[in-house]
Amino acid sequence: MDATARLSFTIPSAEPALAARLRAAVDGKAKPPGSLGRLEDLAVRLGTIRNTEAPRADKAVLLLFAGDHGLCEEGVSAYPSAVTAAMVATLLAGRAAASVFARSVGAEIRVVDAGVTADLSDHAGLVHAKVRSGTRNAAREAALTPAEVGEALERGAAEAARAVGDGADVVLIGEMGIGNTAAAALLMHRLLPAPLERCIGLGAGHDEAGIARKRDALARAAARTGATETFEVLAEFGGLEILMMAGAALGAAAARRPVVVDGFIATVAALVAVRIRPEARDSLIFAHRSAEAGHALLLETLGASPLLDLGLRLGEGTGGLLALPLLRAAAAMLSDMATLEEVLAGAA
């Protein structure tokens, strides 16, 4: 079965008149119209995604997918691939930035092995969804087979469906993978499309020689194939954690759940999801504008106005977690805030 058939579920649209009713409800709250700015727009968006006038954002689940990249053989990262497994262990121990932020905002993290090179079978608490142990080196050959692309997308969608089945009101997507800004840059280059140079950033931090190696490796990977069709591009460049994030975005959208998109790499996954199913765009809420090169252009092309702009470029879903209280405040405004009519009645 090809990837398109595997993702044949329906992404429902909102009731046509709902947005107008939600806007009227927001405008009728005990405040001057528009005085809560973009939070009012966010409240309307939450309602239309959930197809209700009383959306909730209480239970939030961050699906954090981890994977390794064969491109690291070309020196595209300042760190070795072994750091991916070490960071997975740190996440599971509750010591990573995402772990700390999740506790502070009351969100659950599910760490998913999408394609880490190391054997993580003995790690308690890890979701085992490994498609293969790292991608192949995209500078020399296709990173994935078409079957592996389909499997990664399908497993990501399944993780989102499982989170929703466990009561998630909001699904956040994040990643961990040494070298994944390189794969993301290649995907952006072909799927946006955009000049490769505009897609390449510092990633986890490079000196001048390191960024030169990264640019050279990605130029060779791009020159190796002229693929432009979405599924062909995904097979050529990977990576598994990016594809699982895309699948999770599609799965959450099909279940009428808002998908909170983190930074550059998660936004590339969102781009993949939109290229596969354009109607998924309406369910995507972009958490922040990353400092990583290319992210501003991605957001502009997707017509996205991120909620935060803090100069973040860590990944791990950290920006999404920091934006989560804004979703909860927007939902609470609809459900709990007094109307102007109620206030005026009390003053009469």
Automatic annotation (TrEMBL):
Belongs to the CobT family. This is Nicotinate-nucleotide--dimethylbenzimidazole phosphoribosyltransferase. Its EC number is 2.4.2.21. Catalyzes the synthesis of alpha-ribazole-5'-phosphate from nicotinate mononucleotide (NAMN) and 5,6-dimethylbenzimidazole (DMB). The gene is cobT. HAMAP family: CobT. Keywords: Cobalamin biosynthesis, Glycosyltransferase, Transferase. It comes from the Bacteria. It is an enzyme of class 2 (transferase). NCBIfam families: cobT_DBIPRT, PRK00105.1. It comes from Enterovirga rhinocerotis. GO terms for molecular function: nicotinate-nucleotide-dimethylbenzimidazole phosphoribosyltransferase activity. Coiled coil: none annotated. The active site is at residue 316. GO terms for biological process: cobalamin biosynthetic process. It catalyses: 5,6-dimethylbenzimidazole + nicotinate beta-D-ribonucleotide = alpha-ribazole 5'-phosphate + nicotinate + H(+). The keyword NAD does not apply. Pathway: Nucleoside biosynthesis; alpha-ribazole biosynthesis; alpha-ribazole from 5,6-dimethylbenzimidazole: step 1/2.
